[in-house]
Amino acid sequence: MxxxxxxxxxxxxxxxxxxxxxQFLQLNEQLRSDPAARRxxxxxxxxxxxxxxxxKEIPRETVEAEAAYHExxxxxxxxxxxxxxxxxxTIAKSGNRAxxxxxxxxxxxxxxxxxxxxxxxxxxxxxxxxxxxGAQGLSAGMTLGAESHFIQxxxxxxxxxxxxxxxIEAPALFYxxxxxxxxxxxGRLAADVPLEAHGFTVITPTGQAxxxxxxxxxxxxxxxxxxxxxxxxxxxAQSIEGGNLQNLRDSQAFRLQxxxxxxxxxxxxxxxxxxxxxxxSAALQAGQPKRSQLALQELRDDPNLIALLDFEDGQKxxxxxxxxxxRWPGSQAAEFVNVGDHMKLDVGGERLWSQxxxxxxxxxxxxxxxxxxxxxxxxxxxxxxxxxxxxxxxxTTMRLALRDNxxxxxxxxxxxxxxxxxxxxxxQGRWVHLAAVYDADKKTVRFYFNGQFDSESRLSQAFPARxxxxxxxxxxxxxxxxxxxIDEMLILGRTxxxxxxxxxxxxxxxxx
Length: 512
Hints:
Elements: H1 3-15, H2 21-33, H3 35-52, H4 60-73, E1 80-81, H5 97-103, E2 111-112, H6 116-121, E3 127-133, E4 143-144, E5 149-151, E6 155-160, E7 165-178, E8 181-192, E9 201-204, E10 207-220, E11 227-239, E12 242-249, E13 252-255, E14 262-263, H7 277-285, H8 288-300, E15 305-309, E16 319-320, E17 322-325, E18 332-336, E19 342-353, E20 355-364, E21 371-377, E22 388-392, E23 398-402, E24 406-407, E25 432-439, E26 444-449, E27 452-461, E28 465-473, E29 480-481, E30 484-492, H9 498-508
Parallel strand pairs: 8-9, 21-29
Antiparallel strand pairs: 1-2, 3-4, 3-6, 5-7, 6-7, 7-8, 8-10, 9-10, 10-11, 11-12, 11-13, 13-14, 15-30, 16-19, 17-18, 18-30, 19-28, 20-25, 20-30, 21-22, 21-28, 22-23, 24-27, 25-26, 26-27
Helix pairs in contact: 1-2, 2-3, 8-9
């Protein structure tokens, strides 16, 4: 057994009331001489507050009995319980010991260690900044204590002293109570919690999430309720007003709303994950935002431009959606979360377009609905041939459907519409560049993923594209919604070449 493992075992045995006199002596000696051990000891005590909610229903008699049990069974050395109100019981040995060992309750009272008062007075260091992508005031290598941090732009990746990796996306306001407890006043957070940090807790204005060995996310809007999303493992969620504890597992989500709370749609891709921030940071350092702006300016000067939505002009399009951070720190994107979320457009008038290019940076939260609506003209009418519907299908491929167009006889059927061959699924939860190029004269539809040509569909009947009133996001609440973010949507009244598409992607790629 290593020294670290022996230390952890000694602490656990002490908290459970079964430490031997030899273990007490070992603990006292190590706590006197080793600052790191003192910090680790304090952090293990922090688990007490995380598990207090789990033990609310245990009768007071049980708590008192357990406290008495420890008084009788544990020989007293210099490591002694402080005489104050009990905050949580230890393992409930009366009745079901297996159950007690499973939930591991912390000591019957807080502990005082010889020489620890000086350490408590020192400025604590709970986490270190591993990567910072455009987050002003935070840089790699910086240590974080109990002070508040507000990041208006960018993304930051932190590592706590217990090894929990945390990604926080702006705008966000947060601070650590300890290495095991983080207050998130608003913002979006993803956490990857190792075994050594089980019990890590995120507290929000509307409730808290307690880790039970997991990867999870917390979305706390500036106005609204927090949502807990479990990517892997298990989390206990509870609203701030109390109510029942909610055990959430893989691919489950819960909104901390009032005392009860409600299930929510699972949105794993809504969170920037540990491991993604370093690529975002490298792209910033390589000057990608400037390259992207130059490419967009070229498009604005294109005489065939129909519309270019970059969401940066401050003019909010009508509809129901969130304005959130885009690919670059401080940039804007439209986020569609709930069924019915949409953005209304009126592009191209009633003019017909024999050539059309559609392109957008998209970050899909999840797939599974029959269709994810990227751009749909209002209606699908017999009298308006060429109406445009651009989407991601139930097979996770891209589709460009125009009213009354027909596939060539030797084309794959695909429900009668041109579909891409490549699935979007591998890019779920990351920024991906999607594009479709339509040529009515040549009777072709070409698809592109991340700047690379994917496939071409040939048509036997092709009408000019008809735009006009349209929507991004929800088009039909039954089967055409959108869950994710849209950034920089391009609508161009000509075909773009393979080289142009590759250049557009390379200039706007947020990863390196």
